[in-house]
Amino acid sequence: MNFKLAAEMAEDEDIKVESVLTNDDVAVEDSLYTAGRRGVGITVLAEKIAGAKAEAGGSLAEVAAIARKVNDNGRSFGVAFTSAWTPASPTPTFEIGADEMEFGVGIHGEPGRRREKVKPAAEIVAEMAEAILGDLDAPSGSNVLAFVNGLGGTPTIELYVIYNELAKQLKERGLTATRSLVGDYITSLEMAGASITLLKLDDELTGLWDAPVHTPRSVGGAEQVQGGTSVNADTVQSWLQQAAVSLHEQRDYLTQLDAAIGDADHGTNMDRGFTAVVAKLGETDGPVPPGKLLTTAGGTLVSTVGGASGPLWGTALRRAGRALGDAEEFGSDELATRARRRPRRRRSSSGRTPRREDDGRRTRAGRPHAA
Q1: Which of the four, 84, 99, 237, 335, has the lowest number of CB atoms within 10 Å?
Q2: 102 bridge partner residues
Q3: What are the pLDDT digits (tens) for 254-297?
Q4: Alpha-carbon distance 302 to 310, whole Å?
């Protein structure tokens, strides 16, 4: 209604307008709460791709046509584990048990297909994927963009659990997620839950998705290859710089969280460490491979961040860098493969391999370490 009114107001000002209706949600259709299907996750993808078409000089008709193409080739499905609670309301949007989920929920909390008990992630994702692919014409061999969207209260790590299960489902059906997006993009306040959107890709849609974009929450625009993202030194440097900005912005919040379980210094330590990382990387001369950037960042964190965070984050970045070696570019699949390789067992100063005594501690040259 609001969009239609906005279009009418623009036309009153002699501004040419075209409207595109998104209706990608396969959960419900023509229910008590809906007329037709709801538009959900595909909106994010359509706006990015249509924006790229406009940036490339497409006419209004061409931009509208590409947005409709995205909608026609995309389907979505959502699930919620808690309700949203609007600030002006004395009660949540709906009541739901701690062991229940709303299967097929709308992004505003509209009822889905059914209310049922929570199940393992693999089973939930399998049903969501079945509902989507049962309605989407994506034969075996197709490439898709897989979008896992958080509804506001789901930790990012859990969204990646969903994506991992989704990748398995796609592989079983002969589909390849050549592009992906994971995060909170269309939310319902603090609702815990997620939606899955699959967009069948062709060369045109892929090219527009990959077109550069610069917004506070950029989507697409990355240089990508089959099976994941292609990463170079510029990408790694950008990651580390963005991490530094985010950690600085969230420093006080992280410190508050740490105060409940630790010594209330996590935010301060991480902010100091990543500030030092950015400064250290700024001292590099000439081209540096991404692996070297990561090992440098890891070493800097170890030397500047106190407590457990320095060794944990520093070790993770150092080992990732060592796994990459001198490669100037790598794919995410390649990094995962290298990281899984078992390192060679270290030898002691006497040349013998450290062994375990009865107490389980490592020994050097057969003798226990001093406590």
Answers
A1: 99
A2: 80, 115
A3: 888 888 877 788 889 999 999 999 999 888 877 888 889 999 99
A4: 5
pLDDT on residue 223: 41
Reported CATH class of domain 233-340: mainly alpha
> Distance between CA atoms of 87 and 292, rounded to whole angstroms?
48
Whole-angstrom distance, CA of residue 369 vs CA of residue 234: 43
- Cβ atoms 335, 319 nearer than 8 A: no
* Res. 337 pLDDT band, cuts 50 70 90: low
pTM of the predicted model, to two decimals? 0.62
pLDDT at position 52:
94
Q: How confident is the model at residue 302 (pLDDT cuts 50, 70, 90)?
A: very high
Mean predicted lDDT score pLDDT of the chain: 82
pLDDT tens digit sequence for 351-360: 444 444 444 4
Tell me which DSSP letter residue 186 carries. Answer: S
Per annotation, catalytic residue among 108, 248, 266, 369: 108
> Phi and psi for 146 in degrees, rounded to 5?
-105, 120
368 strand-pairing partners: 363
Enumerate the β-bridge partners of residue 200. Answer: 144
Contact, 19 vs 60, CB < 8 A?
A: no
- If you classify domain 19-222 with CATH, what class do you get? alpha beta
Q: Count other C-beta atoms under 10 Å from residue 257's C-beta.
A: 14
Q: Return the closest-CA partner of residue 79 out of 170, 250, 218, 195.
A: 195
Query: Are residues 175 and 186 in contact, defined by beta-carbon separation less than 8 angstroms?
Result: no
> Which own/partner pairs from 310-315 qualify as long-range (CB within 8 Å, at least 24 positions apart)?
310/269, 310/273, 313/270, 313/273
Whether the domain at 19-222 and the domain at 233-340 fall into the same CATH topology? no
Query: How far is Cα 107 from Cα 76, in angstroms, rounded to an integer?
Result: 11
| Amino acid at residue number 316 | A
Q: Is residue 266 annotated as part of the catalytic site, yes or no?
A: no
Give me the DSSP letters along 258-284: HHHHS-S-HHHHHHHHHHHHHHHHTT-
Tokens for 185, please give them. Answer: 């993009």
The domain spans of the chain are 19-222, 233-340
Q: What does the pLDDT look like over 29-51, one tens digit per residue? A: 655 555 557 778 899 999 999 99
